[in-house]
Every structure is written in structure tokens, then in C-alpha cells.
Amino acid sequence: MNVPAPILEVDGLKVRKGGALVLDIPSLRLEEGEMLSLIGPNGAGKTTLLQALACLIKPSQGELFFKEKIVSSNHGLFQYRRRLAMVFQEPLLFDTTVFENVSSGLKIRGLKRAEIGKKVAENLERFGILHLVHRSARKISGGEAQRVALARAFATQPEVLFLDEPFASLDPPTRESLIDDLERVLRQTGTTTIFATHDRMEALRLSDRVAVMNRGRILQIGPPPEVMNQPLDEFVASFVGVETILTGRVSKKDKGSFLASVMGHEVEAVGEVELGETVVFCIRPENVTLSPSSPKGATSARNVFTGKIEKVIPMGLFYKVQLQCGFPLVAYVTGHSLEDLELREGKEVVASFKATSIHIVRKK
Amino acid sequence: MDLILEGILKAFYLLVTFDPEVIKITFLSLQVSGSATLISLLIGISIGTMVALAEFPGRRFVVSLINTGMGLPPVVVGLFVTIFLWRNGPLGFLGVLYTPTAMIIAQAIIATPIVMGISLAAIQALPKNLRLQILALGATRFQMVWILVKEAKLPLLAGVMAGFGGVISEVGASIMVGGNIKGYSRLLTTATVMETSRGNFDIAIALGIILLLLAYFINLILTNIQQRERPR
Cβ–Cβ of A108/B138 closer than 8 Å? Predict the structure, then answer.
């Protein structure tokens, strides 16, 4: 397998603010054409990382390579920035027409009038806002404004595009249609993109790789299914939607599988562990099945527990059921099964999950 | 009561017949205050923008100085300009005391902190990330500052109006450094003071009406600026 050359590479990047280390990225490589998402809670350092990569803030330490050449802060950082584009959470449009806004990056680069006109029209068309061209940026809606901001970014044909939560302040339908358009444009242009978001669904949908950040560090980076199903630690697990995180001690070992005691209950899982070792079980809620009585022999699930329903929370398309089986367990069920099983708070049900569906984090 | 009515009638007569004396005074006023405002714009906007964008120790102190300067008492300015331009003062060799030039200098000193303070506030009031967005668009530092100033153009225009409004209605400094010499350094305000003290209320009222009209137009423009909405 030949490894494509990185378009951006970071070595030992550190950013301090008022003495505190707010960003610490020992290494990061971004391949040409790749779409990388940064997910994490507010204050995780996503924005700081984007701004440091775009040389909008000065890192305290570390080196940045663009197409294998070092980006030096000594002369003309603007030359480097002219090969990038960034879209912020706020559209940050200029107080002029939509046309002038989209052309601003091109004007800064000193392009000719005719060429500017062509590129502006092309990018307005791309985001379906050509009809707004002569409107004042003051008099368009939030969703339209963010489209103008995206068109402005794409107009300069950036080699790397930085998106800092560009959809965070939009209402769901507007956001949905804008993500559709962005996805299509990114597929057309193949632009290398780094996308910061605190919405994991956006990240999973758009990206080739996901990086989970917390407190200025990247905790895990990899393809979305890997990060979703094999989180490296509890923080990542909870952030990618693992609802049940349990700690247990390995009590019995068989070949391939083992039993661990979780709050007095034996849970079977698959993996290589040591006897007596403490392990963390990550159980995704969609892998937990609920049934009215013990499903004897009818399933390969070895982990069968009777539990009491503590809470049923509607989540839109499905319901989240919180159980107490001697340990807390969360399952997702459809509205249909909710009615079928007559699930309600206080009721006893049987919960089961396959040993193979549990992801194990070994405690060092 | 007759005094006022008669005065107003005569004032209108002077205005509609374009009395040469009144016209001359009005033009000189506009010329002196216009020049002073222009000078204050060059200095005020550039330094105001610089202070707004820069980070340096003692910045707060500088900002407080500028804000204090916005309320500089004109007579104090007049006093110091007079001392500096006095025949054997430090700048006495220029020989400009009691000329329109001296009034332009004094008025520029009054207007500059006003324009500077408003520019500073205007640039600071722009969205925090706007500067980063402009840099991310590939702007050089100079391009970035230029775009920011353009973005703040409405509040900056308010600064222009405030500066001009401050000096056109100012009397203390102008009378001290200009001397209110007939046909040479007589302004709307200084003439109003003099004519009033002489009991020539008709001319004083005519001049007053012109001043009021100017003040009205300035505020009309300011109001229009304030009532505009910001872009998203």
C-alpha cells in the first residue's frame, strides 16, 4: 500500500494561553483529499487546533508542514493562508452585497474583474444562492448567510478547508440541507477538509477519519466505525454514543472469552485479558435486546439479565430505556417494540446482549 | 417680546437675501471646521484603529487618555495653542496667531480625540472573529486593517459627524486664537457672541439659525447611521 503524501503535518504542536497548556498535539497528518472531523465538547481545543493549523494564532511550540515544506512565521504567512480557507460558526459577512462578499478573497488575491465575476457566480450557483447575488448581506437569513460564507471560502479554491462548527447555530432543517450541499460540493472538488463539530452525527456522516478531542488533546483518531465501536477509553466511548460503561474484574478465563464480575453479576465478553484484571465494558444501546421473559435457547446471547425499567426517554425516532439490572444498562427500542412489550417505568423486563457486541477497554 | 419677533424677522431677511457678511462668516466657519475635521480624521482614525488592534502594556491607560481627550475643554486648548503660537512662544516664528490657520489648529486638537475615541470603539465593536476571518481570506496586515476600517465605516462616519459637530459649535478656542477679526477670522460662533454683546440681535439670531440648521443636518445623518442594522 502506498501512503499518499501528507498535505498538512504537525510536529509537537503546543499552544499555551495565560500559562495553561490549551493544545498539545504531538503529531497529526492530514492526507490530500481527506476529510477529518474533530469532535469533542466545548473547550476541547478544536477551534484552537484549527486556528493554529491556519496560522491564525501563534503556537507556543512545534512545527507545521504544508506539502512537506515547513511553514515559517518569518515572512508572509498570508502566502500560506492564501492556499486555505476557513468558515466560522458565525458567517462573518462584510457589510456589502453578497457578490462583494464572495469576491472578497479573490480581490485580496488581486484577481481580474472578469475572472472574479465568473468564480463568484459559479460558487453562488453551487450553494443554490445565485438569486441573492445583488442582495445586501444584511438582509438575508442565517442559513443563506452561512451559504454565502461557504461560497466565499470555496471561491478561492482552497487546498485545505477549515470548518469551525459552521452549522452549530442553524435550525435542524436548514442545517440538514446545508450539510447535503456541502457534502456534494466536497465530493465534486475533493477539497482536503478539517471539520470541527460537537455533533458526532455530522462527523460520522461527512468524514474519512474522526479525531476525538478533550482538554487540548486528541484522545483517539481513526475511521468512524473504528472510533464508534472500539473507543480507546471511557471518555471517547461516552462521546461516541456508548450509553453503558461498566467496570468489572476478570473472574474466569476460557479460550477467547472470559467472565467478569460487574457489581456482583457475571458478564461474559470476548477478548484477551488476564485473570484478576480490571476491564471496562462498553455496551452500545442498540446492541441490547429487551424481551418480556427469558429467551431460553432462542438466542446466542449469553448475557441475560432481569431488570427494572427506571426511565423511558423519547429520543425522536426511538426510545431510550434505562434499566437497573443490579448494574445500570441502557437500551434503545423502537416505538413499535415499546408498545409491543408494554415498556413503562417500574416494569420488569429481560435484557440481553451478545458477548461479542461488548467492546472492552483494558485498564493499564 | 417685540425684540425677539423683530429679530427673527430681520434674521430671515438677512438669510433670504444672502447677506454678504453672513454668507462670508458661514463659509469661513465651514472651511475652518471642515479642514480641522479632515486633519482629525487622518490622525484620529489611524491612531484609533492602531490602538484598537494592538496589544501592549499600558493600553488601558492610553484608552482612558483618549476617552478623556474626547471632552477636552476648548478654552484650555485655546489657552495652550495661544501660548505656543505667541510671538515669542515655541511656534511663534510661524506667525499664525489670530489667523484662520490658528483656528484650524485649535479645532483639530479638539476634534482629534473625539474621532480617535469613536474610531477605537468602532473597530473594537466589530465581531471578534472578523479579524481572523479576513486573515483567513489571505489578507496581508495592511489589507486586513483596510477591510476592518471599511466594515466600521458607519460608526466612523458617526465619529466624523461628532468631530465636526464639536468644532463648528465651539467658540472659546476660536475666539482666543483667531481673534474674531472682521472679514478675516470671524466665525458663526464668535460673531454670535460679539453681535449679542453689542445688542445686534437680528444678526445674532440669523447666525444662530444657521448653526442650528447645521446641527440638525449633522444629527439627521447620525440618526440614519444609528438606525441601520448590522449584517449577520
Answer: yes
User: Residues of A with CB below 8 A from B230's CB?
Assistant: 95, 138
| pLDDT value for B164 | 92
Mean of the pLDDT values across residues A1-23? 87
In a domain, B41, yes or no: yes
Q: What pLDDT was estimated at residue A199? A: 84
3-state secondary structure A322-348: EEECCCEEEEEECHHHHHHCCCCCCCE
d(CA A211, CA A40): 8
Asked whether residue B229 carries a pLDDT value surpassing 70, the answer given is no
Of residues B83, B100, B97, the one with CA closest to residue B167: B100
Per-residue pLDDT tens for B72-116? 999 999 999 999 999 999 999 999 999 999 999 999 999 999 999
Q: Of A51, A95, A104, which is closest to B231 when you measure between CB atoms? A: A95
Query: Using a CB-CB distance cutoff of 8 angstroms, which residues of chain A are in contact with residue B125?
Result: none
Distance to chain A for B167, nearest Cα, Å: 30
| Of residues A103, A164, A83, the one with CA closest to residue B147 | A103
Q: For residue A85, which residues of chain B lie inside 8 Å, CB to CB?
A: 136-137
When pLDDT is cut at 50, 70 and 90, the band that residue B201 belongs to is confident
Q: Which CATH class name applies to A244-362? A: mainly beta
Cβ pair A56:B232 closer than 8 A: no
Domain containing B30 equals: 2-227
Residue B84 covered by a domain = yes
Three-state DSSP at A66 gives: strand
CATH classification (class only), A8-239: alpha beta
DSSP secondary structure of A197-246: ES-HHHHHHH-SEEEEEETTEEEEEE-HHHHHHS-SSHHHHHHTT--EEE
Q: How confident is the model at residue B227 (pLDDT cuts 50, 70, 90)?
A: confident
Percentage of chain A beyond pLDDT 90 is 68
Q: Nearest CA of chain A to the CA of B214: how many Å?
A: 29
Output the pLDDT for position B46: 94
Between A249 and A364, name the one with better pLDDT. Answer: A249
Q: Where in chain A is the domain with CATH 3.40.50.300?
A: 8-239
ipTM given for this complex? 0.85
Closest partner residue to B138 (CB to CB) among A81, A142, A162 is A81
CB contact under 8 A, B132 and A156: no
**Residue that has been written with the C-alpha cell 478539517 in this structure:** A194
